[in-house]
Structure prediction request, 493 residues.
Amino acid sequence: MLVLIGGLAGALALPLTGVGLGWVVVAATLLAVVVAARRRARPGAIGVGVLAVLLAGAGAVRAAGWLLVLCLAAALLLASLAAGGGLGWPQLLRSPLVLPAAARDSLLTELGARRDGGERGADGGPRLPRPAVLGWAVALVAVAVFGTLLAAADGIFADVLRDLLPGPGELGRAAAGFVVTALLAAALVHRTRTSGATAHPPVEPGAPAVPAGEPAATVARTRRMLLPGEWVPTVALLDALFGIFVVVQVTTWFRGHEYVLDPAGPTYAEYARGGFGQLLAVALLTLGVAGVVAARAARDTARRRLLLRALGGALCLFALVVVASAVTRMALYVQAYGFTRPRLLADAMVLWLGLLFVAILVAGVRLRSRLLPQVVVGSAVLVLCGLVAVNPDALVARTVIDRYEHDGHLDAAYLAVLSADAAVELDRLPEPHRSCALVHLADELREPDPWYAVNLGRARARALLAERPPLASSLLLCPAAPYDGTDDGQRGG
Prediction:
């Protein structure tokens, strides 16, 4: 029954390929399904589920499809964590595979139960379909028969019925929405029920719990800790390497635009993208090394704890300096050319990684990493919610238009591919640029949205265009070449 409820919510409300209110309606329904499937719902799991619903709510507020994709991906990961019970490193690392595996297991379990039951019931009689399935099947057949007879008897009723019934496209959306959401509901219900019997409290990395009656030597054999001679050389050499890298980076900070505009210097694109690539490399290296050292480095003496804090802390501090360098590089790029979606996402990722390094430093001071998985998830959700709050497409349009007002260069083709979220900013442009940038939105928003696709960004854009539509005289002056999706990195203008 819970799976059926989830599937019906998808059939009625899921926009599937669009942006709208239906996403948060379906997400809230699935959260209710998960809570109903668990006999004793844990407040922590419900809290994670509520965060997933809030992320899905971006579809009701922002019209940018790419932003909704990011929010839905994060919401699915949170849903798998909420259904799985516990939020530690193992659950976090396995979270992308949890729901697909749970959906498969749910289908296999259902098929196995039907096969084992055979064609006879427990009392030896014939095995009947489940009451809910039988009831819905009878209802659909009855409605089809009586509806056909009544429509044939009265032409006006037939016209009304034709207007009420959805068309082929809407039926396809509803069928696909039912299948997708029913599978997701089945995965969540299966995962919720199976995890309740097997969940164990998280174990502090590097400090395994000793089972009752089990000698500590047995645990030590199953999880051998790294001695200083095994991890100190690697971390110390990385500290030295990153230290030299940071010194070189600091020398370029104070030159800013002068360094980029120097004939021997890099282009803005090379400078910014190179910094972001370095940041990703440093982030992966630092997080990987810090994670292994935090989990496996021996800390049974004061000297070993001091080594762990000093060398690991230095590595994270150097990583924070590189984060600052990447922020500086991207700031120069944005000052020269304005934001684009990739540049804005790069800034958001830099911010998130900076928060992670700070969290690792705090955990290193206390030598406790139990809360790090929660910090990873929480900081990612925080940054993503911040991205929704700043209205990315509107921010991109604002910086591009500011550049136009400063030097007269306008990336009009790029503005024309932004979503309805940018309509208020695009309305600032003088003619004919304003009409050329808004005409695609006027065409897109000509028809009203169905209830499940209601969206605040599109509603505001539709109201603006109704008050000030694109001018036909300006549209004659629009360039014919569409935007090709490239993110150029010009040198100085």
The two ends are 62 Å apart (CA to CA). Residues 393-475 form one domain. Confidence is low (pLDDT under 50) at residues 118-129, 197-222, 259-265, 482-493.
